Amino acid sequence: MARKNIATSALSFVEIVMRADADTIRAALEARLKTDELLAEREQAYRRIAELEAQVEELMGEPGVFVYPPPPLPVASFKATPASKKAAQPSAAKTATKTAATAQ
């Protein structure tokens, strides 16, 4: 039996749930499996990058001395959640208070 070609148009959540025919569900599953494979490959690449950067820092003898150039290709951008962004950057008021306290 010949396999019918599935349209490669973007599948929305509504199409998958409302149409719910076998071809649409199969296409969504195939897309999900391919996405999972790509994410696993991406994780391996990031692990390799971390290993390389650790080797560079070991050669330099001190972490943070070597300034890495920007990546040659664009990568997915990450948006910080408000909680993690707030935790990563102390507010200006707290910094000013700490500076004033240490100056006295």
Give an account of the 3D structure.
It is a single chain. The protein has a domain at 13-75. Helices cover 62% and strands 0% of the residues. The protein contains 4 helices and no strands. It has helices at residues 13-19, 22-60, 82-88, 92-103. The model is unreliable at 84-104 (pLDDT under 50).
Major sheet: size, sense and barrel closure? none
Mind telling me the C-alpha Rg?
Answer: 24 Å
Order of helices and strands: HHHH
State the total count of DSSP E strands. 0
What general form does the structure show? elongated
Global mean pLDDT = 74
What is the SS-derived class? mainly alpha
Name the descriptors.
disordered C terminus, 62% helix, mainly alpha, elongated, 104 residues
Topology readout:
Elements: H1 13-19, H2 22-60, H3 82-88, H4 92-103
Task: Give a short synopsis of this structure.
By secondary structure, this protein is mainly alpha-helical.
